[in-house]
Amino acid sequence: MLDAMPTADWAQASLSWAQMLHADLLHAHAQAPVLVTLIWCAAFVVISALCLPGAGVLLLLGGALFGLGWGTLLGTLASAAGATLTLLAVRHGLRQRVAQRFGPQVQALDAALATRGTGYLFSLRLLPVVPYVAVNLMAGLTRFPARTFAWVSALGMAPGTAVYVNAGQQLGQLQSLAGLWSAPIVGSLALLAALPLALQWVQRRKLHA
Fold it and tell me: Domain for residue 78, yes or no?
């Protein structure tokens, strides 16, 4: 999922920028669909891996270019790939710098992943209690397997990705993103995020019994 629900100013700026690029990209996609798709995916992976702003804009454009199904699939895979590259960069090169910044949080995350595993990461991805970028950075200091991190992140970020992609399908007519994260959507994600943790709690209760 993306970092957090956008502020009003950032959401409006993102919408305006996406609408400026909309017509040109639709034309380019009609002329060279494979090339535009590859460039879009590469840009999304780079932005995600380098923790740069702009993922929301790309997802809006992805909805306009590819539709809900392909846009969500490509956006989810690109997000997960970028997040995993960040994890690997930290794990194999930036360990000391990130450890100095997130030391106590890393210990807490490592302990939670060790005891609650994939369900905990899935919940973090659905509702980023810890911001998206911070999860990527801190997970690089844990012992959590990179392959598992990639597929769980993809599953957890898919619903949030779909929210942006769906909005992008009406990009030309959108006036505001104020209703993008409505109460029903946030509530549904919260319930979905709580489900794996609740199941794990029930399993532990059965084991103790």
Answer: yes
Measured between alpha carbons, how far is 114 from 187 in angstroms, rounded to an integer?
A: 27
Show the domain range for 126.
8-208
pTM of the model: 0.75
- Lowest mean pLDDT across 14-18, 126-130, 201-205: 201-205
Total domains present in the chain: 1
Question: Does the structure show a pLDDT above 60 at 194?
Answer: no
Share of the chain above pLDDT 70, in %: 72
Asked if residue 3 belongs to a domain, the reply is no
**19-35 burial, b if ≥16 CB within 10 A, otherwise e?**
bebbeebbeebeeeeee
DSSP states along 77-123: HHHHHHHHHHHHHHHHT-HHHHHHHHHHHHHHHHHHHHHHHHHHHHH
Whole-angstrom Cα Rg for the chain = 18
pLDDT value at 100 more than 50: yes
Is residue 2 one of the residues assigned to a domain? no
